[in-house]
Design brief:
Number of strands of chain A: 0
Distance between the termini of chain A: 60 Å
Number of helices of chain A: 5
Oligomer: heterodimer
Largest interface: A-B, 35 and 36 residues
Structural class of chain A: mainly alpha
Strand content of chain B: under 5%
Largest sheet of chain A: none
Number of domains of chain A: 1
Helix content of chain A: over 70%
Number of domains of chain B: 1
Structural class of chain B: mainly alpha
Radius of gyration of chain B: 17 Å
Number of helices of chain B: 4
Shape of chain B: elongated
Number of strands of chain B: 0
Largest sheet of chain B: none
Chain lengths: 194, 133
Amino acid sequence: MADVLVGAPSRPKIQIVPVRGLPVVAVVLAGLVATIAANKLWALEFYHVAGGGMWTALDLFLGFVIGPILAKMPVQARAEFSARFMPKMLLIMPTLVTMTLASGWQLARLVGNLEVGYPKHWWLTASFIVVGVMAVIAIGVLEPANIAVLFEMRKPAPNGEVIARLMRRFIYTAGITGAMQIATLIIMTRLASW
Amino acid sequence: MVRKLPPIAEIAVGAMTLIIVGGITLASRLPRPAPMPVLIALLAAAAVLVLVDVMLLARLRDFAWPLFFKVAKWTLLAYAVMYGMLEFTFVYDHVGGSTLAVLTLMLVVIAIDVPLLFGFSVARYAGERQAAS
């Protein structure tokens, strides 16, 4: 039974979604709706730059700092880290992604970026493709694995083999999204200097 | 040992990819008219994949259905907020007619696909443990 993580004394009680964070998310999303409805340049810039900056920084940090550290840690330590880290990410990442993309689209409409013809328009299309790839990785691979790890950790005797396999997914996909964020930085700084 | 299950997660990711390709195709053409035949083909293919997934799921035995529905239900609620934001933006930007209809149907397909994927991803391991015990 070497693959079963037997109850470590300090194992936290795992809450899949940190309920205390929900009001913050609600306030951020309400502000986003108000921003889009008002269609003001500063507010849209604020949501897009603040959200996008945090999203990019988090992905780069996870992909190139936390990911390699986690890869070298024992399964028990990875699981303990995940139990405390993943629930917070479950609220933070979708909120940042929603505020960045929704305000970014509206901003592009407002400043007329969508009207620009090809071949210059390829920069915009490239940004859609990068976001699309990240969405498939995040929603299709990363997030289901994160949630499965949390549910596994809630069991009286979590299966270490399952956690290790799912965590490997986290490490690899975090690296890929980190690399995609470098592309995002190049594209976005290019668009901002049109 | 991991229980061998049909490729439900892989098919769900395939359906999601088709919807996202549709979204990119549409967004990359704006403000010009959307290439409707391409979008409809992508939407139909994604819908077929989701249908196949639902059929494969329905045939599973010894599966942790309560956990599946618990995760799927909360995922649907969370993503409904995100899809609601997207729909709000489309309507606010006066996207209308067949383009809005296709976009809304794409959101509906992905609203079934993502909860199904999350629910399956969690319940498959619970099922494995239950089957083993």
